[in-house]
Structures are given as C-alpha cells and as structure tokens.
Amino acid sequence: MTEPISTNDLATIFKDLTPIPQNDGPYPVCTIAYSDAFQLAMGYFRAIIRSDERSERALRLTVTCLQHNPANYTIWHYRRTVLNTLLSPSLSSNKHHQQQQHQEEVEDMSKRRKLKDLQLAASLGGPNPKNYQVWYHRHAILEDILLGKSNNSSSISTSTLNRDGETKEEEGEENKDKNGGDDGGNCHGERYWEDVDFWVRNELDYTAQVFEMDAKNYHAWSHRQWVIKSVNRDALWYEEKIFAHKLINEDPFNNSAWNHRWFVSHRGCNTISEEYMRMEADYAIKAAELDPYNESPWRYLLGLIREFLFSLEHKEEDSEKVQVEHDTATATATTGKAVDEIIDYYLNEIDTIKNKLNSNSRNADHVGYCTQMVIAQVDLLEMKNDDLNAIGVALKYTLELKDQDPIRKSYWEQREQALRSRLPK
Amino acid sequence: MGTSNHTTTIQFEQHLRYFLLSLRKLPEQCSKLDSNRLTLVHFAVHSLDLLGFLEDEDHLFRCGTSKEAIINWIYSLQTSTCIPDERLVSEDCELDNKYYGFKGGTYLGEVPHNSLSWEYDHAHIAMTYTAICTLIALGDDLGQLDKKSVIHSLKVLQQQDGSFQCAPVGSENDMRFLYCACAISYVLNDWRGVNISKAIEYIRSCHTYDGAFSLLPGQEGHGGSTFCAVAALFLMGKIDEVLGSRRKELIHWCVMRQMQGMQGRPNKQEDTCYSFWIGGTLRLLESDHLLDQKALNAFVMDCQIDCVGGFSKLRNGLSPDLLHSFYSLAWLSLSTTSTSKERSINPDGSNMNSFDDTTNAKNEIIQTQQNKTNMSLSNLHSALGIRQERVEMYWNNGA
C-alpha cells in the first residue's frame, strides 16, 4: 500500500485503463519538461481518479506520483479518501458475537496502516521536510486520534475539521485545573491515553529526528506544537520544557527553541504568574550572560517583561484567563509589585553582565561592542515612564548605538528623537 | 560588495530573457512545482510588468504567446465544485454548495461532464489570488470571473479561529491563506466572504512575544507570516487598530532583521525574498526608510545572476528561481521608486526629505543600463505585490 508501482509495471497493473494525457490547451504557459516516467504515472492517475477508484493499486499509484511531486495536494487528498474507504470497519456483514473481535482486528489494521502512512510521509519529505503537504498528511492521520473524536482510531480527516479542535477545547475547559492542565479525568478515558500515547511519542521522535537535520525547521516546530497542545497533558508540558532547554543548550542561537520554550511555559497562549515570569526571566538572563551577543535571550526577556506590564495594565480584563504557575512555585505573591522594581532588578542584572564583559576585555585583546545587550538596556529604560534619569541613560546608549550599529543608523536616529522629545528642553 | 565582479546594474535584457523563457518552458526540476504552476506564471508575468516589458506585446509574441493566450490559459483553470457545507448556504440559492476559484495546474486533465459534483477538481485560494492579480496585470477586466461566487466561497474556508484553509478538503489553515482571502476581497472590493473581526482575532493570536507575527498561534515570528499579517491588516484598513502601541516593537523586529540583506527570523541566514517580505512590511508601516537600503540593495544585486538573468536566494548563488527573482525585483521596485520618508510630509507641509538625496544614495548601487536611460522599475502596490497601476486600472474600468 505504500509501495510505489515502478514505471515498467504501470501498463500491466492498469491494463484495463488508458492513460489520459494532460491537456494544456492550445497556448499553454510555463510548461514543464516532465520526464516520461512522470507523464506516464500521471496519465494513469488521471484515468484512475476519473472513476474515483478506491483500491490498493490506487494507493500504490499515488505513491508513484507523489515521488515525482510530493506537493500535489490533490493526490494527497485522493490518497486519504481511498485510505478512509479501505479502513472503514464494515461490521454489517458480521454476526453479532464476532463484532467485538473483528473491530479489534480492524483497529489493529488501521493502526498499522496509519503508521505506514506516517512513514510514507516521512520518506517522501526527506530528512529535512519543508513541504506543507507531507506535514498536513501527518496532521490528517492523527487529528481524530489526538482530539479524541473517535472511539476507534480508524478514520482519517478529510473534512473541514477545525484545526483547534473545538470539541476538545470545550471539554478541556471544564476540566482545566489551575495549572491549565488536564488530568485525563472526565473528558478522556483511559483508552484515549493508551491510544494517544503511542502516536504522540511517534511524532515527538519524528520531529526530534528532523531537528537533528535542521533544528529550526518551521514545519516541524508547528507540528510538534500542535501535537502537544491537542493532547494538553501536564506531564507532556513538563517534558517539553526539558526538550526546549535541551535544544537551547545545544544551540543558544536557535530562536525556534526559544519560541518553543515560550510556547511551553505559556501552555499555548495562556498568561503566566509573576513568579513564573521571574523564573523565566532569570533563565533568559543566564543565557544572555553566557553569550550576550545572542539576540534570542534578550528578546525573550523583553517579551516577558512587556507581557507582564501589559497584564498589569489590563488586570480586570484578564482576570478570567487561566494563569499558568511554574511547577515548583511556592505561595505566590501576585500582589503586583511596582513594575519599576522588576525593571530595575533586570537592569541591575544586565549591569553585572556588562561589567563582566568589560573586565574580560581588559584581559582579552578586544571585546566587540555588545549591541544586543545595549538594545535590551535601552528598551528596559524606556519602559520607566516618569524617570527622566532613565530616559537620559537610554538616550546616551542610543547615541552609542548610532555609532556602533551603523546599518541601523536611521532607526537609532528615530529612537533618539523620540527619547529627546520625552526630556525637558 | 564593490569588490565582487558582479555588475551593479539591473540587467533588464537578461531578466527579460529569463522570464520569457520561463513562460515558455521550465526544466524537469520544476515537476515538483507542477501543482503550483499558476504561481510560476504569476511570478513571471509580474516580473515582466515591473521591468516594463508588458507595455507592448512584441516580447510575448516572439516567445510564442500573447496576453490573450495567457489570459485564456488562466481562465481554463477556473473551476467550481460541489461541496456540501452549511456555511455555503445563502439566500441566493444559485450560490449554494458550490466552491469557486482557480486551481493550480492542469494535472487532472479535462474535467468530466458532471463537473460540479467532482470534488477533486477543486480550487485553491492561493491560486485564485494569483489568477486574479495576474489577469488584471494582463489588462483583463475579470469579465469571465464569477466574482460573486468566488467571494461567497471564501466563507467555507474561514475557520472558527479566523484563519483560512486553501481548499474545503484536505488543507492546513494559517496566515498565508488569510492574506490571500484579504487580497481577493480587496481587489474585487467585496468583503462579504471574510469575517473581518474573526480574521483580526486570528492575526492578534499570532502576535509573537518579540513583536512579529507567526504563521500559527504560538509559533515563531517569521518574515513571511509577518508580511501576510500586516498586509492583510492594511487591506482591511485595520493596521492602527490592531497594532496600537505594539507598532514600535514590530518596526524594531523588522529593522533588526537586516544583516546586510534581510534574514527571515533572528539568527538565520539572509535571503533575497525577505527583502520584500520585511521591506514591504516596513513600507506598509511607513518605516522602510529606517533600513539601510543602500546595503540591502547591494545584497540583492549580489544575488542577480549575470548572463542568465533572475535572482537567487543567497549571495553568489548558482541559479535563479522564479520566486526569488520576483521578490528581489519587487523589493527593488519599492526601493527605487520612493521611500516612505520621501512621501512623508513635515508639519509645515514641506517634504520630509529631499527626493534626490535619498534616491541617489540608494540608486548609487543600481544604475540603469546606459542604452536604456529611461528604464526603471514600475511602482509596486506594497500590500498586493503587483504593479500599482494595474489595480487602479481594473477599478477604473468599472469593476
């Protein structure tokens, strides 16, 4: 079923069909110099899809065609439609007392077939897949399973299911505890977790494999996030935190890994408590200290503080939102300390890093100006609204940046003007 | 960059040859783009338009094609399929259950008789967007387009979260297709197919912690999705409303993407297409003057492929491709026609910057060929990525 049909065998296997040529009309444009093998395979494809045949040979033909063009979304859709037909349990012909056993056999076969198709998608995608269709195929195969929509895992999504899984969200909301997690209680039975665990592990392993080739593969990160969010299980969120840290450790410049850490900390798009925010900010500072020339930890830090500031300004509106607590948080002090205190704390941390960097420069030959660090300082200083001294320092650093980051001279000039307008004449 | 052997002039003649040849025939490697053929036509046609080569049809004739031929080929990709979906139900029963638009290529062959029930022959939103843009660039009045149905069909693609799929079956949904829906609605001047407040909700949900926009909620900020989000907001007239005080963060993120050329995400490599995705975003925010356009243009020119024409993705790349060629020209068009600052006015009504000074600085690195002193790139509509005049012409023709 996932074995392609070789070019030589096409005529034999489809001897009852006549390949249909592609008709581009009298004056086609951007004609492609397809190989003979491509044209023959597609010729049979056009013939077979005409009759909407739902068979094993149809499945094999789609593999042949997808090897030529793995981005053909129509062929992928046709394949899923055929798979669905072949995977549908047909209980009507069975005697009642055999139904249970038969259903299990069918489910087992379904599971094997689905796994094979995931492997097919992986092989068609190659070691670093950047094709939307191969990733969507995985999504379509897994959607019903992960969203707990089916009692058995036999169906494959071919319809316009909501990617967020509206049913799942509705059920999940009721069962969300303060940690924003789902303890696998009411909305999913044990059977769900048994089924899901296998598939989740498979996807985590697969995406991890892709990251070994390209740790910034956008599709792989999107897919991984979708899997985690769909299942929404405490244990999985914790594991993912560790995974994000592992990748940041391997390459602190991997901005995708930083984004994943943000995603995981916030369990998607929830808000986080002040305590948790500080823990994350401390993490970012530590990473910045290890290499202050790296933009990623600085933007992570700024993102956290800005989000916190925003949440304080909109406290009433957010009161119904779920707040995620760090797993080791003690009694929280969410009385909302003055934002200035937090900003000052991190400005101080940055000063410590700056001093270390400068003292290193006395030992080493030359330590280049650390643009990213100074930008972070300016951004933080600017957040101190009524502090003219802070604005003055920000202005001083901005003037440095005009010089030291000349490609952005016009931009720093604009920032300079904005700062000057906040100072008395 | 001045040390390279590259010419620093836009090689109009080479590009003409490259795009004409592409229009006629593409190599076997492009088999993997077979299902997106219409987008390849789009890149070639709009590039020729920006280069000024669509004004007369001689070039096309010599290549064995014509505007009419291309228009006809595009219309041959128009399709409607029957998709039972309650979102397609309307007061106008003629529109029920039918999904309209354009498909990406001719790989299904001729459509069987009862075409309306053949679900496989369905349209694709990105192909519909490119078809409409390319048709108007070729001067077509969209007379053969079932506009009402195309707009109505957008409804079935919009999801609960506000994003769009590309087709009613078997499709992912994300920011790209939301942008396509907005572009279609904008050109056809009919927003009944888009739930704007839902679309905005989705865009908001993709606003990343570092100020950019991702393809999906929770994902990393990225140059392509940032353009799609901002351009969609622009087309909906909602930039200020949605960005609010976070506008500055977004501008910051964009300018920080400049190394010499533009990178698509922090700590990634420069790539010519981001010159447009991010340069274009900044233009929409009236802030592209904040980039070092001289340096950026030098990078793009370094990616121009001498003798062959076109532009590559990376500097000193070996071969061009249609996508990077088009987006390189799109950026160069934005850059060499004007900057946002030049079009900005001081409070006293004077121009914020002298046109000559800025233009000369940017164009220092790009000179038009000596024997074509009047050759320059045409004005681009920053949000649509096609020549400004084409949209205006279409609207003025009583669209």
Explain how this protein is built:
- The complex is a heterodimer of chains A (about 425) and B (about 400).
- By secondary structure, chain A is mostly helical.
- Chain A has helices at about 5-15, 35-50, 55-70, 75-85, 100-125, 130-145, 165-175, 190-215, 220-230, 235-250, 255-265, 275-290, 295-315, 315-320, 340-365, 370-380, 390-405, 410-420; strands at about 30, 270, 325.
- In chain A, helix 5 (about 100-125) packs antiparallel against helix 6.
- The N and C termini of chain A lie far apart (about 75 Å).
- In chain A, about 40% of the residues are buried.
- By secondary structure, chain B is mainly alpha-helical.
- Helices cover about 45% and strands about 5% of the residues of chain B.
- Chain B contains 16 helices and 7 strands.
- In chain B, the strands form 3 sheets. Chain B has a two-stranded antiparallel sheet with strand order 2-3. In chain B, strands 4-5 form a two-stranded antiparallel sheet. In chain B, strands 6-7 form a two-stranded antiparallel ribbon.
- In chain B, helix 2 runs parallel beside helix 5, helix 5 (about 125-135) runs parallel beside helix 7 and helix 9 (about 225-235) packs parallel to helix 12 (about 275-285).
- The termini of chain B are far apart.
- Chains A and B meet through strand 1, helix 2, helix 4, helix 6 and helix 9 of A and helix 1, strand 1, helix 2, helix 4 and helix 11 of B.
**Element string of chain B (H = helix, E = strand):** HEHHHEEHHEEHHHHHHHHHEEH
Report the uncertain regions of chain B. Answer: 1-5, 344-361, 367-374
Strand adjacency order, main sheet of chain A: 2-3
Query: Greatest contact pair?
Result: A-B, 80 and 79 residues
Question: Largest sheet of chain B, order of strands side by side?
Answer: 2-3
General shape of chain B: globular
- Helicity range of the residues of chain A? 55-70%
Helix content of chain B: 40-55%
Average pLDDT of chain B works out at: 87
Count of DSSP-assigned helices of chain B:
16
- Quote the beta fraction of chain A: under 5%
Into which percentage range does the β-strand content of chain B fall? 5-15%
**Could you tell me the radius of gyration of chain A in angstroms?**
28 Å
What best-fitting shape of chain A do the alpha-carbon axes yield? elongated
Overall number of strands of chain A: 3
